[in-house]
Amino acid sequence: MKRYFNEGEAEAIREYLGKLNKGIDLLSDSDVLALQAIVGTHGRSVQEFRLLLGVERRKSRALIGDAPYLNFRVKKHVLSGSTQCKLAFETDGSTENLFEVQQNSEVLISELQIDACYQRTNYVNRKLVKSIQQDFNPLLAGVITVAVRSDGSKWVVDGFHRFLGAKGAGLESLACVFFLSRGTEHEAEVFHDLNSKRTGVNCISMYKAMLAQREEATVSIQQLLDKYGFDIGKNKRQFGAANTIRDAYQRGVLDRVLFVISQSFGDGDDARWQQMFGSSHFVQMLTILYSRYGEIIDDSRMCLVLARMHEEKYQQLAGRHAGTTGSRAAKLAPHFIEEVYNHQLRKGRIEWRYV
Question: According to CATH, what is the number of the domain 106-196?
Answer without folding.
Answer: 3.90.1530.10
